[in-house]
TrEMBL record:
<feature type="binding site">
    <location>
        <position position="167"/>
    </location>
    <ligand>
        <name>substrate</name>
    </ligand>
</feature>
<protein>
    <recommendedName>
        <fullName>tRNA N6-adenosine threonylcarbamoyltransferase</fullName>
        <ecNumber>2.3.1.234</ecNumber>
    </recommendedName>
</protein>
<dbReference type="Pfam" id="PF00814">
    <property type="entry name" value="TsaD"/>
</dbReference>
<feature type="binding site">
    <location>
        <position position="180"/>
    </location>
    <ligand>
        <name>substrate</name>
    </ligand>
</feature>
<comment type="similarity">
    <text>Belongs to the KAE1 / TsaD family.</text>
</comment>
<dbReference type="GO" id="GO:0061711">
    <property type="term" value="F:tRNA N(6)-L-threonylcarbamoyladenine synthase activity"/>
</dbReference>
<dbReference type="GO" id="GO:0005737">
    <property type="term" value="C:cytoplasm"/>
</dbReference>
<feature type="binding site">
    <location>
        <position position="272"/>
    </location>
    <ligand>
        <name>substrate</name>
    </ligand>
</feature>
<feature type="binding site">
    <location>
        <begin position="134"/>
        <end position="138"/>
    </location>
    <ligand>
        <name>substrate</name>
    </ligand>
</feature>
<feature type="binding site">
    <location>
        <position position="111"/>
    </location>
    <ligand>
        <name>Fe cation</name>
    </ligand>
</feature>
<feature type="binding site">
    <location>
        <position position="300"/>
    </location>
    <ligand>
        <name>Fe cation</name>
    </ligand>
</feature>
<comment type="function">
    <text>Required for the formation of a threonylcarbamoyl group on adenosine at position 37 (t(6)A37) in tRNAs that read codons beginning with adenine. Is involved in the transfer of the threonylcarbamoyl moiety of threonylcarbamoyl-AMP (TC-AMP) to the N6 group of A37, together with TsaE and TsaB. TsaD likely plays a direct catalytic role in this reaction.</text>
</comment>
<feature type="domain" description="Gcp-like">
    <location>
        <begin position="24"/>
        <end position="307"/>
    </location>
</feature>
<dbReference type="InterPro" id="IPR000905">
    <property type="entry name" value="Gcp-like_dom"/>
</dbReference>
<keyword id="KW-0819">tRNA processing</keyword>
<dbReference type="GO" id="GO:0005506">
    <property type="term" value="F:iron ion binding"/>
</dbReference>
<keyword id="KW-0808">Transferase</keyword>
């Protein structure tokens, strides 16, 4: 089965083709970062317009890169939520129109399920069950995963997601957009232990997160300093350490509570080098394994949507021909994948 995957949940247009046995055949990504950088964040209307302009040319390029014809495509998967409603509607409209025209099934995919399953595209893939940490600009969640579509929320952010906190702190420090990479780069210049930052909600039971207080603490610290580049670097370092340490503490706690020995980390923030290093160190201490997607698939991409769509289409979960966009969509509401699962190479 050849599946065309389309991702348009926010400000990146991703297209890919996944084959059930051969794996990833081709993928392309167009990023709108330069468009939105001057505004300090994503402008929804501009994002939708760029998806309209870029999506069909990218689909043609990916089909050519895969060295197949459109007649060989057996199904289409697209991101139907959560995300920006206008951006989602662009991808959904194109996907449904192509599926109807070509006479093939299509399915809307949950954006965060795509992230969660991205490490399964690798040759060294985790087996079920495992604990997943989904950490991105819009979500920070710990999930117990028994299989595809079998998700139990263990904890989540009560306010800002970790990625959102990175972006807002970067804007506070005048580092530009996107904030995560800017904070991480500046943190490398920091001097340790110049400031003391809290690790939110780690002094109490539970697996929920809260980063709004940490953001406020960062603002107050910045307001009381001389605001030199070194001051900013020291603050960036301690802010990043506080976020990463909080995530590590909660992951360790989730593994202990579930008695599982596999941790999957996915979403845009999973590219953060400091977080990867500390989680790998934690995994060695706990005698467990941690899995990440490759760096190019940490952020939004079409490959994860094509892969996830392939699993669901193989299980017969195609949907009626309706354009569906869900800006809010809890991952716990997804349908389980009917066993047995097909091999994905």
């Amino acid at each position: 089965m050849y599946v065309l995957g389309i991702e348009t949940s926010c400000d990146e247009t991703g297209v890919a083709i996944w084959h059930a046995n051969e794996g990833l055949l081709a993928h392309r990504l167009y990023s709108q970062v330069n468009t939105h950088a001057e505004y300090g964040g994503v402008v929804p209307e501009l994002a939708s317009r760029d998806h309209i302009k870029k999506l069909l040319p990218l689909i043609r390029q990916v089909i050519a890169d895969a060295q197949i014809s459109k007649r060989q495509i057996d199904g289409i998967a697209y991101t139907s939520g959560p995300g920006l409603i206008g951006a989602l509607l662009v991808g959904a409209s194109v996907a449904r129109s192509l599926a109807w025209t070509w006479g093939i099934p299509s399915i809307g995919i949950h954006h965060m399920e795509g992230h969660l399953l991205a490490p399964l595209m690798e040759s060294d893939r985790p087996e079920f069950p495992f604990v997943a940490l989904l950490v991105s600009g819009g979500h920070t969640q710990l999930i117990e995963v028994e299989g595809i579509g079998m998700y139990r929320i263990l904890g989540e952010s009560l306010d800002d997601a970790a990625g959102e906190a990175f972006d807002k702190t970067a804007k506070m420090l005048d580092l530009g957009y996107p904030g995560g990479p800017a904070i991480a780069k500046l943190a490398d210049e920091g001097t340790p232990h110049q400031f003391e930052f809290p690790r939110p909600m780690t002094d109490r039971p539970g697996l929920d997160f809260s980063f709004s207080g940490l953001k406020t603490h960062t603002l107050q610290t910045f307001a009381s300093t001389a605001k030199t580049r070194q001051d900013k670097a020291d603050i960036a370092m301690e802010f990043q350490n506080a976020v990463v340490d909080t995530l590590v503490i909660k992951c360790r706690r989730a593994l202990t509570e579930t008695r599982l020995t596999r941790l999957v980390v996915a979403g845009g923030v999973s590219a953060n080098r400091s977080m990867r290093e500390k989680l790998q160190h934690m995994a060695r201490e706990e005698n467990c394994r941690v899995y990440f997607p490759r760096l190019e698939f940490c952020g939004d991409n079409g490959a994860m949507i094509a892969f996830t769509g392939c699993q669901r289409l193989l299980a017969g979960q195609a949907e009626p021909p309706e354009i569906k966009a869900l800006p809010r969509w809890p991952i716990s509401a997804l349908r389980p994948l009917a066993p047995p699962q097909a091999s994905t190479a």
